């Protein structure tokens, strides 16, 4: 069974990764050099901790959590204060989020005592401005990360999610490509260095796919490997019994040929083992004969 020479060969030394990269991995890869230069250290632990905090600030997005679409000041404020509040307080703030937003904007320009008064947060419509009057909020506003200055967290997060989706599609196509290359290749004639041993027998569906692959690839060059496999499976399931019997008969012949080669391989292997045993025995006899002659000469 000849293998099509027109099919592109794949380098067997290159394999797809074991898993796809997530959006967090893309975020770390893109921002690690910048933060490392800022810290001026070769120890990656503080850099990773800082990047993890920046990623958490991106994840706790006010636009998706509570529907507040405002500046990075409000994002940092909500992400740092609402983490430590009870669930009922969060529900009240979420229920009356519009009044909380406008009261917070009205009170951000004022000054007050430090700390976060919990009673003021429980009633956001009346005293949400008191929450924004605290000094820690002003410090957070002045120390906003550069990510928020470039673009909003929801856009930044969406960009990394898109890269994660593209990487997942690339991984699936690459994995399917290597699977098809392994499935479509001819049977191996060597096993562990032996000179006559077939690798495996072919199923009827595999024999059909070996013929249909080239036709589908030439007819639809824009299809990926997943679409080609789906179309081949559909055609195989729609084959008539007479046509399918042809491939089944070829598979049986291939199985008979496989068994014949395997028997020859085992027989040749046993003969080689016997020859090696005989050669080793003759060497041992010759060495003993030489030793006995040497002792007799002395």
Helix/strand order: HHHHHHHHHHHHHH
Strand content: under 5%
Count of helical regions:
14
How far is the N terminus from the C terminus? 67 Å
GO molecular function: DNA binding
Protein name: HMG box domain-containing protein
Domain HMG box: 198-266
Pfam families: HMG_box
What would a concise description of this structure say?
About 70% of the residues lie in helices and about 0% in strands. With about 300 residues, the chain is mostly helical.
Helix and strand topology:
Elements: H1 23-39, H2 44-59, H3 62-65, H4 72-81, H5 87-95, H6 97-107, H7 118-122, H8 124-132, H9 135-142, H10 146-150, H11 153-184, H12 204-219, H13 225-237, H14 241-297
Question: In words, what does this structure look like?
Answer:
This protein is mainly alpha-helical and 298 residues long. The chain has 2 domains: 23-160, no CATH class; 187-297, Orthogonal Bundle (DNA Binding (I), subunit A). The protein is built from 14 helices and no strands. The chain is flat and about 95 Å long.
Q: Descriptors for this entry?
A:
single chain; 298 residues; DNA Binding (I), subunit A; 2 domains; flat
